[in-house]
Design a protein that fits this description.
- The protein is α+β, with helices and mostly antiparallel strands.
- Among the domains are: 65 residues, Winged helix-like DNA-binding domain superfamily/Winged helix DNA-binding domain (Arc Repressor Mutant, subunit A, Orthogonal Bundle); 74 residues, Ferrous iron transport protein A (FeoA) (SH3 type barrels), CATH 2.30.30.
- Helices cover 42% and strands 17% of the residues.
- It is built from 8 helices and 8 strands.
- The chain has a 6-stranded antiparallel sheet.
- Helix 1 crosses helix 4.
């Protein structure tokens, strides 16, 4: 049981580093620890173990990045996770905002053979219910061209594509406001004194904090 728990921890670290990495940059250990809800000391200890296993590179005082082997293992975990999200939403009818947590539990108990059978059963969906791409059977993720809403400018308009990275709190917040992939979005203005970002999403106006907007991605429509 201890061995299984340790392997699960490794998978969580690899997946989280992959999720937090932006433009192939380094992920600070402090950000990794915060995302996983552990101490920086615990995260540092695991980073050293993963480096010894050849799964990541660590640049002191800057952060960590997955090696090719670590990236492949992370993509394998992410593939399982997002396929389960599709199954739970499309075939069990579970709410969009709840399936992330359930998939986090299932991803660690799923053999590769089950993953591929699940992909065939689902007819190889390209994205999860939150709009994030599902790595293919070779663990390759397609290039993404969308941008988080906090990088848009007033007057920009387009469509919400995905929520990334997901968390239970974030998904509950967005679901309660009917903010989800596929919704049209227009950036109307920035509230005074560097306030929230005012967005027209669907037929409602929302005041989004910058941290929330950083997790909502969209593709802008060329005028």
């Amino acid at each position: 049981m201890k061995h299984e728990s340790f392997n699960e921890s490794i998978e969580m670290y690899l997946k989280t580093i992959s999720e937090l990495a932006e433009d192939d940059g380094l992920v600070p250990i402090s950000a990794l620890a915060e995302r996983l809800g552990v101490s920086t000391v615990s995260a540092t200890e695991m980073v050293h173990r993963l480096r010894e296993q050849g799964l990541l590179d660590h640049t002191p005082y800057k952060g960590v990045a997955l090696t090719d082997d670590g990236d492949r293992r992370a993509c394998r975990i992410i593939r399982r996770h997002r396929l389960w999200e599709c199954f739970l939403t499309d075939h069990l009818g579970l709410p969009w905002q709840q399936v992330h947590d359930f998939a986090c539990q299932l991803e660690h108990a799923t053999a590769d053979e089950v993953t591929e059978a699940l992909a065939v059963f689902l007819d190889n969906p390209p994205t999860c219910p939150h709009g994030n791409p599902i790595p293919d059977a070779e663990w390759i993720v397609p290039a993404l061209v969308d941008q988080p809403l906090n990088e848009w400018k007033p007057g920009d308009r387009g469509t919400i594509t995905r929520i990334h990275p997901e968390s239970i709190l974030l998904l509950d917040y967005l679901a309660a406001r009917h903010i989800e992939p596929g919704q049209p979005v227009t950036f109307t203005e920035v509230a005074p004194f560097n306030g929230p970002l005012m967005m027209q999403i669907g037929d409602q106006t929302h005041a989004l904090g910058r941290e929330i907007a950083a997790h909502i991605y969209g593709i802008r429509t060329d005028e």
